[in-house]
Design goal:
Four Helix Bundle (Hemerythrin (Met), subunit A); Rossmann fold; flat; alpha/beta; single chain; 46% helix; six-stranded mixed beta sheet
Length: 432
């Protein structure tokens, strides 16, 4: 049964110089011929008058991408319009009049690209991350993923695994005793050991890839009136948190996204940690303690006369605040937001600490789903290698190898991912 033809705006809402509407599906050719008069040459921007039921809609550039050489793998086209909201609405209303044409669901263009083999699952995830990227490092990592960084490595692993599987399967088919010949076992062990070593190296950077994608969480904690909100405002270069000399002013968590020289950071201002009889403040303190335990890095602020140690949780950078009020005699980086003393040094320390946790930005694993699938593949390979070393049952070894191949398939979306596809594609806008 032929599927619907879908259309949607592919540019942001509001008035702009140019607005783009895209369409994909079996009716695309007919729609172009009807409203633009005839088909333009493939992949060549052509100026045409677009006509609707009430006359001309706009004078626009149209680009025609016949299947299978398009983003979705179907017949596809783009309308580059003048950026008036009225023009966009008129064209969308016109497209909706065609039979079997409808507004796209969120991510439906990307889903059709996936279903037609134009992108595998890891590339789609890279595309989603690229759209959401806010810093330079996030952009580079997402682009690498979208262009097949992980997919190509998985293809190499699958090829090596197929070689090992062929050796083991051949002994099942041609051996009378069911045992693997020593020479065959040696070659199979070599393939599998190489795979395990390579996968271990990739998994070692998985946490860095996920941190870069999500951003490093830095919690700012300490006693009341330590200068937490003042420091958050200074690091963000804008007034976000309320600053007051009254203890307990900050009662809830305030999350501030920062781009620290290309490093994605979420800075969290917390309630001052102390014993309090105020029920609302106690709730804020409880939330602060919970967020401390979940953070990647912490700034422990110590005003003059305060020497308590930070609670268990992340790695802490100890900071002596309000240095303009007197000289600190204890450990910790001394700063004064009021005079600016020590602030550049603090930013430098933050860049170093966060940079170490994010690595170089070349991690292949960027999502927990990928991490889990690859971990399961390595576990299956390790079990197969153990069987080969101990002259185990050949069919069990072969089954472990087949299981590893299945987990490789999960990474790129070949098998076992149907349950998460709706959630993934719903993250995109309707024009993607």
């Amino acid at each position: 049964m032929p599927r619907d033809t879908i259309f949607a705006p592919a540019s942001g809402s509001g008035k702009a110089a140019i607005a783009i509407v895209r369409i994909s599906g079996p009716k695309t050719r007919f729609v172009l011929e009807t409203i633009a008069g005839s088909l333009p040459k493939p992949r060549q921007a052509t100026l045409r008058v677009l006509n609707g039921p009430d006359g001309a809609i706009d004078r626009a550039l149209i680009v025609w991408f016949p299947a299978p050489h398009s983003f979705t793998g179907e017949d596809c086209a783009e309308f580059h319009l003048h950026g008036s909201m009225a023009i966009v609405r008129a064209l969308l209303a016109c497209l909706a009049l065609f039979d079997d044409c409808r507004l796209a669901q969120p991510g439906e263009f990307a889903r059709r690209a996936f279903e037609h083999g134009k992108m595998d699952l890891s590339a789609v995830e890279g595309l989603a991350d690229l759209i959401d990227s806010e810093t330079e490092r996030q952009r580079k990592q997402a682009l690498r993923q979208m262009e097949g960084g992980l997919s190509l490595r998985v293809a190499e692993w699958r090829q090596s695994l197929l070689s090992a599987m062929a050796l083991v399967e051949s002994d099942i088919d041609f051996s009378d005793e069911g045992d693997i010949e020593p020479e065959t076992a040696r070659h199979a062990r070599r393939f599998i050991q190489h795979l395990i070593t390579d996968i271990e190296q990739v998994l070692a950077t998985a946490r860095q890839g996920q941190r870069l994608r999500d951003g490093i969480v830095v919690v700012v904690a300490g006693p009341p009136n330590a200068g937490k909100s003042t420091l958050v405002n200074a690091l963000a270069y804008r007034d976000i948190a309320i600053v007051s000399a009254i203890a307990g002013t900050t009662r809830d968590l305030i999350e501030v996204p920062l781009d620290l020289d290309g490093l994605p950071v979420t800075l969290i201002d917390t309630a001052g940690l102390r014993d309090s009889s105020d029920e609302i403040e106690r709730q804020g303190i409880a939330r602060a303690r919970q967020r401390v335990s979940q953070s990647d890095l912490g700034l422990w602020l110590m005003p003059p006369g305060f020497d308590d140690q930070p609670p268990a949780g992340p790695d802490w950078i100890r900071i002596r605040t309000k240095a303009d009020l007197g000289v600190h005699e204890h450990d910790g980086l001394a700063i004064s937001v009021l005079t600016g003393d020590g602030m550049e040094r603090l930013r430098e320390v933050l860049r170093q600490e966060i940079g170490q946790r994010l690595g170089s930005g070349d991690a292949l694993i960027t999502r927990e789903r990928q991490n889990q699938a690859l971990t399961r593949a390595m576990q299956a390979l390790s079990q197969a290698l153990k069987g080969l070393k101990q002259d185990g049952d050949t069919e069990l070894i072969a089954e472990d190898l087949r299981l590893a191949a299945r987990h490789f398939g999960e990474i790129i979306g070949v098998v076992g991912v149907e349950a998460m596809l709706d959630t993934l594609f719903a993250q995109f806008c309707i024009g993607k």
